[in-house]
Amino acid sequence: MAGLLAAGLGSAVLTSPGHAAETLKEIRIDWATYNPVSMLLKTRGLLEKAFAKEGIAIVWVQTLGSNKALEFLNAGSIDFGSTAGSAALVAKINGNPIKSIYVYSRPEWTALVTTKDSKIAAIADLKGKRVAVTRGTDPHIFLVRALQSAGLSEKDITPVLLQHPDGKAALIRGDVDAWAGLDPMMAQAEVLDGAKLFFRKAEANT
């Protein structure tokens, strides 16, 4: 079962069971738009079919980012959650009781995004600008690394902390100058709103 759970390009993580001796009645798993595998499993009911004979129910809980998946895991709201690899690593280093059990793939799923009419064309142009970002996620780490590559830090910008869908909406409304984007919301902004991916680096995705 562990091998069936995976993030879009990260890892599936779980908390230690609190009552291992009890009969397992349900498994609580997150699903997320940034994790296509979870959406496929949920839509096709594959896990429900796999555990039906054992009388184990599957409970799906939506998460909007690695930070929320980790938050739900720590609170015991879910048993398995999907996160970016870097987010899981940072959480583990910080003492969160999680375990990475499966790495799925490494597509390019994050980039720095701005509006079609923006004059922002390079990382250096972010200095003094408002940037939407979801703290503790792969896009956040991607943003920090991008800033460092241009000799900047988060102190040189104004981070606007929002969940991924809200970050996209804020960019389109013009509330922020740029957004540390995440697919599929990033692709939607690019196709439907003409948003520009002004900084991409596939190997910096985790």
Can you describe what's shown?
The chain folds into two domains: 2-103, D-Maltodextrin-Binding Protein, domain 2 (3-Layer(aba) Sandwich), CATH 3.40.190.10; 110-204, Periplasmic binding protein-like II (D-Maltodextrin-Binding Protein, domain 2), CATH 3.40.190. The strands form three sheets. It has a five-stranded mixed β-sheet, with helices on both faces. Strands 4-1-5 form a three-stranded antiparallel β-sheet. It is elongated, with a radius of gyration of 18 Å. Helix 6 runs parallel beside helix 7. The chain is built from seven helices and ten strands. Helix 5 (138-149) links the parallel strand 7 (130-133) and strand 8 (158-161). Helices cover 32% and strands 24% of the residues. The model is unreliable at 1-11 (pLDDT under 50). The protein has helices at residues 36-44, 46-51, 66-75, 85-93, 138-149, 164-173, 185-193; strands at residues 11-15, 26-31, 57-62, 80-83, 98-103, 110-114, 130-133, 158-161, 178-182, 196-199. By secondary structure, it is of the alpha/beta class.
